[in-house]
Amino acid sequence: MLDVGATSANNIRFLTGRGHKNYSEDLLRASLDPALRSRDSEGNTIVDSKKFLDENLVYGNGIFDIVLCWNLADYMEESLVKPTIDRLWSQMKAGGLLLAFFHTRDAGPDSTCYRYHVTGTDMLEMQEVRFAPPGRPATEKQSPRLQRVFNNRHIENLFRDFASIKFFLARDNIREVLVVR
Q: What CATH architecture applies to the domain 2-180?
C-alpha cells in the first residue's frame, strides 16, 4: 500500500496493524521544493516534472495493491499531476485500487488542505495541513493553495489508462473517486 498524502502516524499504525506493508511519501510537500523550479525563455516559472519523478515515487512497476492519493491532484502544480498519475499507474498491480478526493466546486485559493487519518474501516479524521511556502520562514505556515477544480470529464481523462472509475459524492463538496488499474 502506498499513501502519497501528508505523513500520518495514525494511517501507518492502522494499516500495518492489519498486516499491510505500508509506504508513505508526502508528494505535495515534495512538489513545493524550490529546486524543482526554473525560468523558461520568457521568464515564466516552470516546474521540472522529470526531476520531480526522478526524486519521488522511485519504486518498481506493479508492486502496489492500493494507493491513497487523497486530495493531491487538487493542490499539486498542474504540470506534475498527469505525470504523477501515470507513474502511479505503472507502479500499481493489475486490479489495484487508487482512492482520490476532488473538490466539487471552487472554494477559492485559500481553501483548507487536509491530511486524512484513517481511524476505522469507515471513518476518516481530517487535520489541516500547514507548512511554510518555499523561501519563507517556518513561522509563516499556511495551507497549500487549491490549484484547480477538476470536473468529471477532467477526472476521467486523468485516469483514462485505468480499467474503471467510480465517483461518489461525499460531504463538504468533496467527490471521492475509486479507480481500478
A: 3-Layer(aba) Sandwich (3.40)
Q: DSSP secondary structure string, 78-113? A: HHHHHHHHHHHHHHEEEEEEEEEEEESS---TTPPP
Global pTM reads 0.90
Residue with cell string 495551507: 143
Please state, in angstroms and as integers, the Cα–Cα distance from residue 18 to each residue in 8, 15, 115, 134, following that order.
16, 5, 21, 37
DSSP 159-181: TTTSSEEEEEE-STTEEEEEEE-
Which amino acid type is present at position 7? T
Ramachandran angles phi, psi of 47, nearest 5°: -110, 130
Q: Return the residue matching grid coordinates 493542490.
A: 75
How far apart are the C-alpha atoms of 19 and 21, rounded to whole Å?
7
Q: The C-alpha cell of 100 is what?
A: 482520490
Q: Work out the pLDDT band at 157, boundaries 50, 70, 90.
A: very high
Is the predicted pLDDT of residue 151 greater than 90, yes or no?
yes
Three-state SS for 10?
helix
Q: Decide: residue 14, CB within 10 A, 0-12 exposed, 13-18 middle, 19+ buried.
A: middle
